[in-house]
Amino acid sequence: MRGVRKSFGATHALKGVDVAVAPGEVMALVGENGAGKSTLMKVLSGAQLPDAGEMFLDEQPYVPGNPLHARESGIAMIYQELSLAPHLSVMENILLGIEPARGVLLDWRAMRERAAAALKEVGLENVDPGTIVRRLSIAQQQLVEIARAVALECRVLVLDEPTSSLTAQDIEKLFALIGRLKARGIAVVYISHFLEEVQRISDRFTVLRDGETVGAGVTAGTAVNEIIALMVGRNVNELYPRSARTAGEVIAKFEGLELRRGEVVGIAGLIGSGRTEFMRRAFAQGGWNRGVGMVSEDRKTEGLAVGLSVADNLTLPRLDRFVRPSRLRAASRPWIERIPIKCAGPEQRVSGLSGGNQQKVAIARLLHADVDVLLLDEPTRGIDVGSKAEIYRLIDELAGKGKAVLMVSSYLPELLGVCDRIAVMHRGKLSEARARAEWDEHKLMSVATGQS
Amino acid sequence: MKSKWADILGRFMALVVVFVFFAALVEGGKFYTLRNLENILRQSAVYATAGLGMTLVIITAGIDLSVGSMIALSVIGVAWALNLGGASGAATISAESGHYLVYQYPVLIPILAVTAGVLAATLAGLLNGSLIVGLRLVPFIVTLGTMGIIRGLAKGIAHERDIYPPESTWIGSIMDPVMTSKTSSGWLLPTGVWILIAGVLVTSFLLRYTRLGRHIYAVGSNEETARLCGVRVGRTKLIVYTLAGFFCGVAGLMQFSYIGGVGQPTTAQMYELFVIAAVIIGGASFSGGEGSVLGTLIGALMITILYTGGQQMGWPKWVQEMAIGGIIIVAVALDRLRHRQAT
Predict the structure, then answer these.
(1) Chain B environment of A79 (Cβ under 8 Å)
(2) Which pTM was predicted?
C-alpha cells in the first residue's frame, strides 16, 4: 500500500501511509488508537474506499470495491471485536458469504467437510461444525474466526488485536497457528498493543502515528522502548507511575478479600476462572449507594451507553429526580478537564471517542458518583499505550487520595506494575492476596493455571 | 438441531393445551366439530400466509407494519380485475349484464386478477424494501408510513367503496369450506389452506437450504459481520421485504374469498398486529437471528383459536382482545425465561 489517504469530513484519518508485507512473513502494525490502523485495514478490506494512494497485490493493482471483492482476492480480516453471527452454526459462520452450493441449494455436506477441515487447521477439531456459535467460549469463537480466514484460503491475513481476550494458553496456540500459516506462505499483518507479543511473533514492524507511517524496521534487534517512542512520539519513561502511598483502614470486604483506603488490589486469573463473576458479586454486595462503583469489562455492550453523550454517561448513576441538561453538562466539564478526556465537549456522543477515552468516561463516572471503592474489570483492554499510561496514572492518583481500587486484568505486567497486593483466581477460588513484591509473572501464572 | 425441534414441540403442546381448554369449556362439544376446525384453519390461513413473509422480515431484525394494508391492496387488485368491464362502484351486486369481461374469459380474467392482486402487494413490498435499503431508514418508520400510503392507494382504486365483482369465480371460492360442504369440489382441505401448506414448505426450504435463507439469518444475527463477510445485506433485505409483500398478496387472495368475494378496501385492518403476534408467539426474536416458519404457523393457529374460542365462549369482545394481548406478553415472557435458563 503506497501513499494511502482517507478523510472523513475535516478529519484526516490517513495522511499518506506506506505499508508492505511479503508472503510468509509476519508484519506487525503498531500505533496508538486513532493512529489510523483500523481505517487502513478497512481500506485494505474494501469496507472503505481510499481518497488517494495505490495498493498492489502480487504486483497487480488492487482496488477492492467491497468486502466481498477483498475476500475473493484472498484478503481476510480478523477484527478486534468478534464478528460472528451468534445464532448461526460454526460451519455457517466459517463459510458465510462463500457457502458451497449446487445451484440454489446449499451443499450442507460440503459445508460440514470444509468447515471441519478449517477447524482442524486451527486446532478446534473437537468442536462440532453444527454447534451454535454463541454456545462457544470467547477463545473458541476467535479461533472460529481464524478458521473462516483459513477456509477462504487467504493470502493475506490481518489480525487486529487477536489476543486481547485470550488466555496465555490460547495465545500460545494462536502463535503456533500463525507460525503454521506463515510457513504456508501466507502474509500476516499483526496489529497489537502488546509489544511483547509483537517482539515474539513478528518479523518486521511498521509504526503508524496520526495517520502517517513514522517508522518501520526489522523486529529482531529493536528494543520495545524504541517502538513505544515511535508510537507516542515521545519517551514513555514511566508507564506505571507509583506515588508514595500508605494503606489506610479497611473499607470493604468481599468474600474474605479486604480492601483498604489508598490501596490498589489486583486479581489475576485466566479468562473463565471466575474473576468477572467475583467482581459482579462484589458490586452486587456493595452497589452505588454504599460507595462502590464498577467499570465492567465490556464497555461497548454494557459499560457505556455509547449512543448517548459524555455528559449523560458521566452523570447517569447520580441523577436527581428532575434533570436540567445544562447542569449535567456543567457537572461533567470538570471531569473532562481533570482526567482528561479527549472529546469535543460534554455533548459529544461516546461512540465517537477512542477506546481509551471511552474507558476514561467510564472511570470518570465512578468519580462523579463519588465512590470510595472502584471495581475495574480489565480497565485497559483494547486501548492504546498512551491511554493506558493515563489510566495507570489516574489509578495511582485515586489511590493516593484514599480510594480503594480493585482491578482485574489478564495482562500480568500491568498488575505487577499498578497493584500493591495481588490475589489469583483459579477455578472460582480466590487465593490469598499477597504483596506485589512476592509475585512475578511466572508465579502468578502457575497459581492461575493451578500448578502450585 | 434437536433443541430446535424440542422448541417447536413445546409450542405445539401449548397450542394443544389452549385447544383442549376451549374444547372442554365450550358447550356441547361445538368447539371440536369438523365445521369449527375447518373455520379455524380458514381463518388462520390468512394470518399464517402473511406471517411467512413477516417471519423472514423479523429474522432480519426488521418489522413490517404495512401488512394489513398490503393485504387490502391485494384484495382490491383482485376485485378490480374481476370487475373489468362492469360498472365501477357499488350497487352492482345483482348486475347480470354481459359487460363483465370475466363472463367472456372465465379463465383468463381470474388469472389476471390473481396476478394483479399478488403483483400489487409485491410491488408494495418492493417499495418498503427500497425505502429501507435505499434511504437507510428504520423499517418501523418506513412501514408505518407505507401502511397509510398503501391503504390510501387501495381506497383510491376502489373509490372508497366496496367493489362487488361477479360471484362464482374460482378465486372467490378458494377459502370456501370443503370438509363440511358436499357441493364444493375441493380436495380434503380448502384450496387456500393447500396454498398455505405449499408456502410453508417453500419458505422452510428457502430458510434452511438456500444461501439466501442462511444470509437472512446472518443479517439478523449480526448485520455488520454479514456485511464484512461479503453478504449483500441491502439486497438480502430488499428480497425479504419484497417477499413479505408477495406473501401478503397471496394472503389477500385468501382474504378476498374469506370475506365473501368482496373488494373491501377497509379489510384486514389491524392484521399487522395479529401477524406480528403470530410470528413472535412462534418463537422469533425482535432482535433478529431467530424465528421459524413452523413456529409462525403455530402462532397463527394459536391466535385464531383464542379468537374463535373466546367468541364461542360468549366472551364479550373486550375480554377477547384483552386475552389475546395477555397471551402475547405471557408467550414472550416465557420465551425469555427459557432463554435465560438455557444460557
Answers:
(1) 228
(2) 0.72
